[in-house]
Amino acid sequence: MGDPDLDVLAEQERRLVFEGFDNDTAWALGVQMVTVARERGLPVVVSIERNGQRLFHAALPGTAADNDAWVERKVRVVRRYGRSSYQVGCHFRAEGSTFEEKSRLDPNEYAAHGGAFPLTVKNVGVVGSITVSGLPQADDHAFVVEQIERFLADRP
Predict the structure, then answer these.
(1) What crossing angle do the helices spanning 85-94 and 6-15 adopt, rounded to 10°?
(2) What percentage of the chain's residues is helix, strand, coil (to nearest 5)?
């Protein structure tokens, strides 16, 4: 299966914006994500950070320290590019190359693989990331998007 349309990925990022985001918001979103992941039996790590501070982190059964390392590498991509780690990787592939070949960034520190989504606050911009690691990259990305959509739809 090929990469999704870059316009679809960009539209997700334009649409999935929070009115505000505090520690309680991180907790509520993180608990929702973990609850759904448990219900589905997904072996994932869920991590939410804002301005460099980790506000939520949970490692479900079936995960390992490697998943935490993947989280950190994907989060660095969001911090650097202000876009989802999946969109960044797809962008490089759409141009006929790979992130590892063309970004000039250390692949031990940066991973443009799906799962880290920019935490964007209205009238502020990207302030952090919401990340999942443990599934194939397209599934990590899809789970994060689905959960943010659900969370925002449930808010007044």
Answers:
(1) 160
(2) 50, 20, 35
User: Is 77 within 8 Å of 116 (Cβ atoms)?
Assistant: yes
What domains lie within the chain, and their CATH numbers? Answer: 6-153 (3.30.450.150)
C-alpha 114/C-alpha 56 separation (Å) is 19
Report the distance separating Cα 25 and Cα 22, nearest Å.
5
The pTM score is 0.94
Q: How far apart are CA 23 and CA 28, in angstroms?
A: 9
What pLDDT, in 10s, does the model give residues 124-154?
999 999 999 999 999 999 999 999 999 999 9
Single-letter residue type at 12:
Q
Strand partners, 116: 131
Classify residue 31 by its DSSP letter. Answer: H
Query: Could you tell me the two tokens for 110?
Result: 């940066």
